[in-house]
Amino acid sequence: MNQPNFQLAKTLKAAYNACSLEPLEGPDIEKYYVDLSAVRKSSAVKGVSKILDFQEAGDYTTILFTGHRGSGKSTELKRIQNIWEENYHVIYLEVNEETDINDANFTDLYLIVIKQVEFTLRKLGLSFDERLLKSFENWFKEITQENEESVEKSVSVESEASLGADAPFIAKLMVKLLAQIKASDKQKTSIRQTLEKDISRLKADINLLLDDAYAKLRKKYPDYKGLLIIFDNLDRVPPGVADHLFFEYAAQLQELHCTIIYTVPISVLCSPKNPLSLFDGNPHIVPMVNIYQFDRQSSHLKDNQTGLEAVASLIEKRVDIDAVFNSRAELLELAKASGGHVRQLMQIMRAACLRASTNDHDKIQAEDIVYAVKQQQFSFERFIPNEHYPLLAQVCINKDVSKDDIGQLMLFNTSVLEYNGDNRWNYPNPVVMQNEFFKQALAEITT
What is the average per-residue pLDDT within 353-378? Predict the structure, then answer.
């Protein structure tokens, strides 16, 4: 491994802080990023990049991006943003910051698009066509019974500061409506019903504004192909909400005049409704790092040393292993326990740092790793229903998750993980397989 040009963590405290659970962005991408596409047997970033490359100026499309929560999707999306920000005006946003992630609706996403695009234009010294904007604002005033005075009273001081003194009525209204959607079930339902009564008008007006925004951006930045909006954290919506959003409203999600990347819960891949068939193109998947070698024909499974080394390299990129670990064996045990799941790797690593420090160890020892893995195991035990264990045992044997609500839930909560390679297959999370309930269920169907 090439030596980095920055200081690796040499203490337990420094290692704990270096192994943050947050997605990499900015300078940290350069410092810590490891390309795992070879051991994932998948390159979602390259796949998305080819679509963005093949698009001509003014074209737009919808791209689906999926994988387990914590698999590294946000870091990969940040890389896409960095790679393409000279050819597209990229708006990266976290949906959970804008609306109720447990009950997201396509109309919420429409409001977010207008809010973000208006703000972006204003920040660049541009603005929507005054006639188009006034027509849109007047329609909103009519259907929502809002006006400048009622909106001003509702927008918080913090929002006013972030909006800026020159914010138009529509910007303030979007802030108000999204805040109400996020905070109140009653207001959320009322707003959505109001908008859906005339969804054709809403969509048409938004597209007129998006076309106008593209023309303004293209005039100022001739190299821009268009707007690219990345909806991150949409994969956090529960399976039932995801089925509703990506099945019943698949058409509406694809009808805005800009290129959009939607993060999709991996559970949707196993929905009997097959909602993703309603979208153009296959979803781009960030699967687990293949820490196993699996041959479906023989059902033979063994450790994949290349994959384990790749997972270990995520820690090696940040931490001086000789200074922080008692031996490299502990690091590889940590890699095995992660299942190839990036966030789980970092969670166990941080727990091991804390445990070692609590035990007055200078370095992480085997017992600290055992303790950290146990804590992760106990975390799963707290939320996995007892009736799931026989099904998890079946996944262990068949290497495939059931295509039903329980199967989707097991993918969503990462008790079952998705792997790619020559085949697509599933396997229980390694920390779940240490559970006595799982062991008992496995014994009952194998003896």
Answer: 96
Three-state SS for 20?
coil
Higher-scoring residue by pLDDT: 10, 295: 10
Beta strands 62-67 and 259-265, pairing class: parallel
Q: What percent of the chain has pLDDT over 70?
A: 96
Tokens of 235: 């994969």
Sign of the CA dihedral with 79 first, then 85, 87, and 93 last: positive
Burial class (CB within 10 angstroms; exposed 0-12, middle 13-18, buried 19+) of 9: buried
Rounded-to-integer distance, Cα 320 and Cα 324, Å = 6
| Cα angle value 356/360/364 (rounded, 5°) | 30
Q: Report long-range pairs for 350-355 (Cβ below 8 Å, ≥24 apart).
A: 350/16, 350/19, 350/21, 351/375, 351/376, 353/12, 353/13, 353/15, 353/16, 353/19, 353/324, 354/16
Distance (Å, rounded) from C-alpha 413 to C-alpha 411?
Answer: 6
Residue 267 banded pLDDT, cuts 50, 70, 90? confident
Three-state DSSP state, 385 = coil
Other CB atoms closer than 10 Å to residue 56's CB: what's the count? 7
Asked if 380 and 238 count as a contact pair (C-beta separation under 8 A), the reply is no
373: exposed, middle or buried (Cβ count in 10 Å: 0-12, 13-18, 19+):
buried
Amino acid at 436: E
Q: Residues of the chain with pLDDT > 90: what percent?
A: 65
What is the model's pLDDT at position 1? 45
Inter-residue contact 414 to 70 (CB < 8 Å)? yes
Q: Answer yes or no: is pLDDT of 403 > 70.
A: yes
CA dist., res. 305 & res. 336, Å (int) = 10
Q: Computed from CA positions of residues 41, 301, 70, 278, in that sequence, does the dihedral angle turn out positive or negative?
A: positive
